[in-house]
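Data availability (excerpt). The following record was deposited with the supplementary files.
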Amino acid sequence: MPSSNCHGQRTWRLSWLSSAIPMAALIGLIGCSSSHISISGGNGGWIEEPFQTISGSDIPVGGEATCQVLVVGGGTGGTAAALAAAKAGATVCITEETDWLGGQFTAQGLSCSDDSQLITHDPSTALSTSEIQFRAYVRAHYNRVSNPGGAWLSGFSAEPRACLESIAKMLQPQVDAGLVKIFLGSKPVAVTMNGNQVTGVSYKRVSDGATFQVKAQQVIDATELGDTLKLAGVAYRLGQEPQSDTAENEAPVVGIPGAIQAITYCMILERRPSGENHTISKPQGYGVDPWMQGYSLSNTKVFDGMHPFFTWRGARDSAQVGGKELAIINWSLGNDYWFGDTIDAPAEQVNLNLEQARLRALGFLYWLQTEADGTGYPNLKLDMDSLNSTNGLALTPYIRECRRIRAMETVRVEDISDYYQTNTRAPNWTDSLGIGQYSFDLHRCVLDGSGDPKGEPLPFQIPLGTLVPEATNGLIAGAKNTGTTHLTSSAYRVHPVEWSIGEGAGALAAFCVAKAVQPREVFASEPLTRSLQGILLDAGVPLYWIRDVSPHDPDWKAIQLVGVTGAIPGDTGSLNYLPAGTLTRGESAMALVKALNLPNFVPASPSFPDVPSTHVAFAAIETCLHNGWLTETPGSNFLPEDSSTIGFIDQMVQKATGSGLFGSSGPGTLATRRQAAQGFAAILLHRVNG
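Predicted structure:
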């Protein structure tokens, strides 16, 4: 596989507020309440205070802890999962092998978010409430500067410790309330099963080898490599699967298990004044060993040009926030390591490969200091304060690809690529638990795979079924280990998508505990899925791509529901819903059938001459007629493309449910898509919740 570079006013409601607060006001509240920001003097200056962290718990008394939801792995997805489960009222234990929660944003040193342009241009309809709150806390540390790192790759970049501080602020109230316990430096070593159900995980503490166990009703695997899957004997995929496995058009005929994307030990460099020399000692094997060669910036310059290398993933922009000038180093032809398996190889080989990956990163630093742009930049200094490590590298490598569960559903290239679709969105998954969008960002692999897929991903969703194993209860995927393929995982691995996956996993786990059901039962039940989606929407999690209706809109939940269920899809030519537009008579029939979740009735021949069997609303119109909800006479024209009036919709709904939607509204008035969303969402929620 060819190498590639990784280029590629919110309002919300809180339970204790009676009305929406603009995002700017919320960020103001966060900044004012933060102990890290103080306003000084009359010049509007600000004083930056030390970063806050969050402490873990000691080994439980008796060597055993119990909770309702156990999150194994405290990365980006795991952190979001723990927050979501605790906010839903579940007791949560979260464990993490390193000393830092946050994964990509913190321990892996990649605190420059891989955001799509949809997020950069308008995060209010692309990110959940919790992720926007996470970003607001980070910005509050820097006196609310929007992009403290100044990265040109992303609109959100900062130092890893600022991201860790934000996580601490979000989790601390749950810890104080007794809902969350955190166990840091804890490596999972065994899984307890009761039949086909995961009931607990055993751990070894990294520092001293002490052991303990955590028992739970639901376990979320949010480890970076999908470790819980292997320990539990859960079926998983690794590398590139054969075409016969998923029927993915882009997959090779013969699978390539070794087609696993490169890992990267990130580091943070400080730009010091010219003339200073901070060159490190030449790393062992530099220029000799295969993994210590091939460094290149392609056509990019370190400091010059429109898009210089150093500010590609900036971590701290001194021009905006003072202090050091810092940059995150994560470069495909620099510190990417693809020279050996670090997942399923024997432990000794994995450790050797990890050490070589560290050496490769230090070799890239040495190359930058001595050879880049012909002369090198000895003033580039490895920052030893940013990543909490003894060698200046990230605590753990950035993982692009891991074990992926054989799930109830699998996302393939043709499910999300614009090469196979003509819509502006990827095809709708009616069990969506979140949304995302990013390019197919494939890096070089240990063994070459089939290459880049055709097209680019459309705005996509995270189906519930991709989080649920085929045959195991009590276990949910909550990070990069979901039901994707080798190719599609490259779009689902980025920061915002992993956060959304984790948030959906946490909500699903807490829901299963509250309802005393298993994830597979939720997946198999349309009413349970809709109830879960309602909880996510109440928490400010978008499930369907809509850009012209934000969460502060009073009808946001209704419009999201009719969108994700397919009752009233969004505009096919844009990502908008067009709430002021109208609904055709055919679309109204489809909306009613979808809202009631009825099977379609298909007669031997069409009942209306202007609604042939090829018409998109044919089955829905025939179903409404079959159930006696239409007044139109078979043999006459139905006029499916005419705009629906309030009277037309009301008479259908009255016959179907026994009550109308619009009360005293004029029956001849055209119904707007907003009004239709209000009505049909109410029907759906009444059916699901009673």
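Summary of structural features: Residues 263-382 form one domain.
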